[in-house]
Structure formats: C-alpha cells, structure tokens
Amino acid sequence: MESLWHLFLVALGILLLYLGGEALVRSAVALARAWGVAPAVVGLTVVAFGTSSPELAASLAAALAGSPGIALGNVVGSNILNLLLILGLAALLAPLRAQARFLRQEVPFMLLATLLLFPALWTGGGIGRLEGLLFVGLLLGYIGFLYRATEGAEREVEEEFAREFGGRGRAGLGDYGLLLLGLLLLALGARVLTEGAVALARGLGVPELVIGLTLVALGTSLPEVAASLVAALKREPDIALGNIVGSNIFNILGILGLTALVQPLAFPLAEVARDLGVMLLASLLLWPFLYTGGRLGRREGVVFLLLYLLYLGLLARDLGG
C-alpha cells in the first residue's frame, strides 16, 4: 500500500510538471513577444528552457534532497529516451529529413556536450561548480551563435510562432498570472515527484539512478514527447529533430550546469558509465543515419526502438541480478 502511495506521488508530480511547463512556455512566449524580444531569441531561449523546465526542476529538487543519482539519471535517461524512443516513434510515423545546417551545427554540438560528461565525472567523481560554470558558459555561447545564424530567418520564425502560440502583441495580467502559476506548478511538481521517486526506490530496493533513468526521465520528457510526435504527424521534421537535439543539449549544459552551480553532483563515473555509453552511442548513430540519406526513415526508427528495448532489458537484468 505504501508503494502505491509513492507511485501516486510520482504520477502527480509528473502531471504537475507537465502542466507547469506548458503554462510557463505559453506565458513566457507571449510576454517575450510583447516586450519586443526577437522571435529567434524567444525560440532559442524561452521555449527551449520551458520545454526542459520539468527536467530542470526535478534535477534541482533531487540534488538539493541529497539524491544525485536521480538528478543525473534524469538527464541521461531523458536524453536516451529522446533519441531512441521519441525519434524512433517519430520516424515510424513519418520519415524525418534533416537540413545540411542541422547536420553541420546542432548534431555535432550535441555530441560535444555528451562527450564533456565523461571527463567531468572521471576527473572529479562528479560535476562540481567549476564544471557547471563551464557548461552554462558553453550553452550561452551556443545560443549566441545560433541567434546570429538565424538573424536572416526572422519572417519564417515569426510565422511559425504565430501559428503555434498566436499573434498577440500585447501582454495582459493573465500572461503574468500564467507565468507565476507555471513556476509554482513546476516547483510543487518537482518536490512531489522527487519525494515519491526517492521513497519508491528505497522501498523497492531499486537504485535511485535506475528510477531517474526510467520513471523520472519519462515523466519529465512529456513535453518533448508531445512536441516531436505532433511535429512528425504534421510533417515538420525540422521541428521534431530540432526539439530533441536542442533539448538534449540544454539537458546536459543547462540543467546539469545550473544544478551543479546550486548543488554539486558527487557521483562516480563507474556507476553511470554504461548509461553514458548508451547516450553517446545513440548520439553517434543519429549523425550517420541523417548524413547518409539526410533522413531518419522507418528502418532507422525500428533500429532506434529496438536499441531502447535492449537498454531497458539491461536495466531489468541488473535489477534481477
């Protein structure tokens, strides 16, 4: 009975995080546009932060609660899930074709961010404030680079934002209220989810890292799941691919960076080496799959899904052993 209560807390936390993230994105976009912020900047900062805000809230709460395994597992598990499960499902729904710029810029930078985790965990046994500062600095530099690269595409981005978020140019009290509500829901959801996940892990004898890699990762990735699958159905491959790759970059550099600045994550590389290896493999596979044919087809989608099932099988085997 106690385990069911903890599972209910996890589900409630996930729901609150999803609602909070959705409210935050909607209100922040409306406010940013009303303040005259360029749509490209809004897309690269506000929306990217908003869709990853559940991961940030959950990781911060877990780190402050003394559960670095959940904080790190949440990010690594979310990135694995994004690449193998979400892109796999999206490719089955509709082949995802990538632009050359996407291959030259976003995917290699995601690989770089992934590789940075290995020396960070190897040298210090965790991610400290120095590494966190480096991660956040790299993310800010990358956002600045992308902003300069998209300056010529303002009209296209403006039209896309008008379709997605509406064309309002004035902010009302409702927008500020929705922003506050989103932040409150995120804070409450993160606390409830972390409390339930930690108690569930300890009650069932499951390592906190595994809970973070699976249950928490899936729950906090709901915005990416919805956005990418809807984009695939609408035949918007750049949105589906960009959402996943951009989220993975932000998860590593932004979430782990900000979390480490607030509360350093002491965690040995040996305990998460396999999971980091799976994340790196998935990132490496994305590049040749896109580069050879410029697309992720249904065949590649099946490969990604099979790899994710294999990964879940490895986690289950460890628990059984």
From TrEMBL:
Q: Which UniProt keywords apply?
A: Membrane, Transmembrane, Transmembrane helix
- Where does the UniProt annotation locate this protein? Membrane
- One MF term in the entry's GO annotations: calcium channel activity
Gene3D superfamilies, alphabetized: NCX, central ion-binding region (1.20.1420.30), NCX, peripheral helical region (6.10.280.80)
Principal subcellular localization: membrane
The answer, when asked if Transcription regulation is one of the entry's keywords, is no
Q: How does it sit in the membrane?
A: Multi-pass membrane protein
Q: Which protein are we looking at?
A: Calcium/sodium antiporter
Q: Which organism is it from?
A: Thermus thermamylovorans
Native organism taxonomy: Bacteria, Thermotogati, Deinococcota, Deinococci, Thermales
